[in-house]
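Run log, item B.
One chain of 135 residues. Sequence copied directly from the ordering sheet:
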Amino acid sequence: MGNWIIPANSKRYDFFSAFNNNNFIDWTKKAKYEEGDIVYLYCTKPQQKIIYKTVIDKIFNSSNREVNDRKYWINKNEFDESENEKKDFIRLKLLKYTDDENLFLDNLKDNGLKTAPQGPLRVNEKLLSYIEKYI
């Protein structure tokens, strides 16, 4: 089982509402994830912190997509343009939500994170231990 941090931009996708309504989100697969991996969502500006702990519930491709989440996309055209692309997705099932100031970017960088996540990052043991203390 792996542990990951992925960036989430609330100016592109309303993951707050998606999690509140469904308790999961479907995310484009951009790394060698496996079912059961833990994924921490690092929310980019303005939050700049980890606020969600999720687990990869399943991996599937666009032809098996069950949920149309267009309503959560800020730019509906962006969703529409990507809808016909063949790609793989991961279903991130919500495990925990937190609003802890210890999970801000500067604190994460003081505890093993090298830079603000720009894509999927594997979490090292030091950082994992720190994150789990506050989530």
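Observations after the first pass:
- The first strand starts at residue 3 and ends at 8.
- Strands lie at 3-8, 24-28, 38-43, 49-61, 88-97, 121-122.
Flagged for discussion on Thursday.
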